[in-house]
Write a structure and sequence with these properties.
CATH class of the largest domain: Alpha Beta
CATH topology of the largest domain: Cathepsin B, Chain A
Strand content: 25-35%
Structural class: alpha+beta
Shape: elongated
Order of helices and strands: EEEEEHEEHHEEHEHEEEEEEHE
């Protein structure tokens, strides 16, 4: 816990007037019930009187599963919440908190194939859910889409290849005429379901929404572009034209704080700290694709 603040709700007693000529009998108002004060599920104190001063931490560190989460307690809002609880004669009040930072204990894993970053990231996400499956097994279980290597299409300047929305495109180990590509979130989500893990689709959400999930202690598999291209277009097996960023990559978000996110990166096999602006830039290059643990 970081720092302490004093929550004082004492109200000064009113003095009787000097010129009173008759004695009056006053009765003290009934004291409120003991009020238990909580913040994010942690009991901080019990208020026995509306005149009692209570010391509260300004920042609270909470353990939630694999995550260590730090939250701040805004003093003025906390005072208002306690006063309202006293007026309503409640026995418990939950103070407002503001998420500050998080760090999820999840070991980064190095990808062993040239193009299996998605399977490697999925193996980490499943591990966070208590399911241990290796990246090579997951890669082998992913559906494939299209020919292994691009094929020419008569009368078109575009070639035919797979659809990453339906399965893995190309060669996981690289090689071939285009070196392989990868897979997007629908097949990854379906594969996780086979292991009893139902991932939440965050496709198209804002960076703020993604940060809120990570700050709550839930890891996220996110698709990013390591660079702004090169881009390549082709026809899927159904004849749909798609354009992809060939620097497509998948990582796992395992924490966040003011102006940064923590990333388990399969490419390096290490935990990295990216600025929020860098993550936002890289994430938009792949169309804001992400999956989170529920």
């Amino acid at each position: 816990m970081r720092g302490m603040c004093v929550l004082s709700l004492a109200v000064a007693a009113l003095a009787a007037g000097c010129g009173a000529s008759t004695a009056t009998t006053t009765s003290r108002p009934p004291q409120p019930k003991p009020l238990a004060i909580y913040a994010d599920g942690v009991k901080l104190a019990t208020l026995l009187s509306d005149r009692q001063a209570v010391r509260l931490p300004q920042r609270l560190s909470i353990r939630s599963g694999r995550a260590r989460i730090a939250v701040d307690i805004p003093l003025q809002r906390a005072k208002r919440a306690v006063r309202a609880a006293l007026r309503a004669d409640k026995t418990r009040v939950d103070l407002p908190v503001v998420a500050h930072s998080s760090s999820i204990a999840l070991r980064p894993v190095l990808q062993v194939l040239h193009n299996d970053c998605e399977a490697t990231s999925l193996s980490m996400l499943l591990a966070a859910a208590g399911v241990r499956v290796g990246q090579l097994r997951l890669q082998a279980q992913l559906p494939r889409s299209g020919p292994l290597d691009p094929e020419p299409v008569a009368g078109s300047t575009l070639f035919r290849w797979g659809d990453p929305e339906r399965g893995f495109v190309g060669r996981p180990a690289g090689g071939g005429s285009e070196g392989g590509f990868g897979v997007y979130e629908p097949p990854i989500r379906a594969l996780a379901t086979r292991y009893g893990v139902h991932l939440v689709d965050l496709h198209g959400r804002s960076v703020a929404a993604v940060r809120a999930v990570v700050l709550a202690g839930r890891p996220i598999l996110a698709w990013v572009g390591l660079d702004a291209g090169p881009y390549l277009s082709w026809l899927t097996p159904t004849g749909r034209k798609i354009t992809v960023n060939l620097d497509e990559h998948a990582v796992v978000l395992v924490g966040a704080g003011p102006g940064y996110v923590l990333v388990d990166n399969p490419l390096s096999g290490r935990r990295e700290r990216w600025s929020e602006s860098l993550f936002e830039y890289r994430w938009q290059l792949l169309g804001h694709r992400a999956l989170a643990l529920p």
